[in-house]
Amino acid sequence: MRGRFITFEGGEGTGKSTHAAMLGVRLRAFGIRVQLTREPGGSPGAEIMRYILLSGAARPLGGDAEAVLFAAARDDHLTTLIRPALERGTWVVCDRFADSTRIYQGVAGNVDSMAIRAMERIIVGDTKPDLTFILDVPAKEGMRRADQRRGESGADRFEGEALAFHERLRDGFLTLAANEPNRCMLIDATSPKEKVSEQIWRLVLKKLEPATAPIQFEEETV
Ligand code: TYD
């Protein structure tokens, strides 16, 4: 039986990585094999592209080229890690995926959305997420949390954008959640971490019924 594909999306400082990890722990306790991963990156080839993108080295090439690089990284990640894992019956929990390209490059970055959809069709094809959590916090609060987490180290390519960019991201994710209510679950991530995690788990139980998945005891990590 094919594994399930769950993605976490949202702006900066919304707690995606924390909640992806917490969900991984809960699923493993159910006897489900879980592959935790992230984008951009998640496979050796894609991690190289992650560095090029987040260091800002690709910025002078323009938004279209950055969108193509995100897609190329995703192609490698899908081919070498995500699809093989799903085929083995492993559940894949991914911190960001194609919705981030739609919103960061498309909505906030002004790359033509038809071009982004076309690339998504080619690269992602049928490997669409079964369930996507969109973690929502006000843009200003998200930036504050991201600043706090970073401490002394500098902002990356996208964290360094102005508040208006982050407001556009938030609106973009809210619109996505409204347009695809079957797949995308909007989560108020200003609530305490335990409450958010509980809400995510209840939705996974309801939507994906992990209790019916075959039990697999071998564990995988990133
Ligand atoms: P990351 O350090 O993983 O941060 P975060 O905790 O915010 O997810 O950085 C990923 C950055 O890359 C983030 O700013 C969003 C951006 N991004 C895009 O612009 N397009 C994409 O398709 C993806 C996957 C990420």
Measured distance between first and last alpha carbons:
22 Å
Determine Rg (CA atoms, Å): 17 Å
Q: Spell out the helices and strands N to C.
A: EHEHHEHHEHHEH
CATH class: Alpha Beta
Number of self-contained structural domains: 1
Tally of individual helices: 8
What integer is the average pLDDT? 95
CATH superfamily: P-loop containing nucleotide triphosphate hydrolases
Largest sheet: 5 strands, parallel
Assign a percent range to the helix content. Answer: 40-55%
Lateral arrangement of strands in the main beta sheet? 2-3-1-4-5
Number of strands: 5
CATH structural architecture: 3-Layer(aba) Sandwich
User: Unreliable segments (pLDDT under 50, ≥5 consecutive)?
Assistant: none
Approximate strand percentage: 5-15%
- Inertia-based shape: globular
The SS-based structural class is alpha/beta
Bound molecules: thymidine-5'-diphosphate
CATH topology: Rossmann fold
Report on the architecture of this protein:
With 222 residues, the chain is of the alpha/beta class. It has one domain (5-212): Rossmann fold (3-Layer(aba) Sandwich). The protein has helices at residues 16-29, 44-54, 63-88, 98-108, 113-123, 139-150, 163-179, 193-208, and strands at residues 5-10, 34-38, 91-95, 131-136, 184-188. Helix 1 packs across helix 8 (193-208), helix 2 (44-54) runs antiparallel to helix 3 (63-88) and helix 4 (98-108) crosses helix 7. The longest helix has 26 residues, at 63-88. The structure holds thymidine-5'-diphosphate.
